[in-house]
């Protein structure tokens, strides 16, 4: 298909496709003349993957490039691919921003993981991240024990189990699908946690949502309507704060 | 205390503290002479909050500013605070990157939420985000039904319940703590999911981690050692991809 068809099929604007081609996120098509090329299903899938990772997974393009490199790295086993994905999507915490002394929390986390019988290396990023969260919660005045996460750990294991069973049969797209799910699953779970929390807080502390009797019907979403919905309060909230243009990591500006 | 003590207490470098003061993330101290000011416990807590949100929560400073504004907004009820937090931390998906037609998936999600008896407004961001994830998974070749999330939804509700019970007694820091936990909890859960996944993938597809017989002992973390651990493979993986400096949202460069 031509680039215009590719754009129509994937919903990715032609200008963006050309940018991805320049940046090497998308392999070139088969030349069919000057400034003309044919693209195939592989290009389609690749574009949908990039779109899902950037648009829904909120990953930046350099991260997506790393994921693509891992997917295509023939040397990399499937376990290696999951490991790489974990480390690329959840990179080391900026050590200049992390809490220095999490020795006690790290011990707790390691014991917790051992007791679950999880066989993961000492370098699996989650160990330090979880220890950092525990330490931060304590610094902030909520004494949360690692056992707080016991029920979740159990379910997380079950989900990993079910998640693997979703692997599509098609070998060729299996690796991309595995990476995509690992990223999208966290987005979905965070979304659900937020919804459950709002429900419970409304229930507990007084309801800011319309009472169920008079719930306004959810407007049907027309294909053209941006999926983020103008009705969504998120946008207003997002622009609520003072516009401060600063680099993502203050470390850079020190 | 002086700014140097504040830095020692919180582990935030003086230069960063001064930057936060300039940007209004930190209220000024009590002047005690030219270029001299005294800071109190409130400054300490505020710095620890900012550090946790940027360092562990990986939020940028403008997002942290929005959270701080919400925490201090006396008009905002606790339910309102949770709602604001949800929308600030998980803003609308960039509509230019989202999937246009998620009508079917959105219907599924709405039905799912109704069946759970969750009373949340039609604009709670999670609805569209979850619909986007379902649509993306299908585009990518894995047909995942919303019921896939049934067990998680149940647990998410239990966690929201327990999470609220963690609210510290101290009224003054309650709101900041509520926001901090909402952000940090997702970090912790994602970390756990990643660990569980690596464990299971190792088990299922061959182990890349050292066999349990010969597991290398986890090195004790000395207080000075950066918590992100040089041993962590994440850093290598993070630098694996080609260095592409591009704006986070390709939309901007179109």
From TrEMBL, chains A, B:
InterPro entries: DNA-bd_dom_put_sf (IPR009061), MerR-type_HTH_dom (IPR000551), MerR_fam (IPR047057). Residues 1-70 form the HTH merR-type domain. SMART domains: HTH_MERR (SM00422). Residues 224-243 have a biased composition (Low complexity). Residues 204-254 are annotated as: Disordered. GO terms for molecular function: DNA binding; DNA-binding transcription factor activity. This is MerR family transcriptional regulator. It comes from Micromonospora radicis.
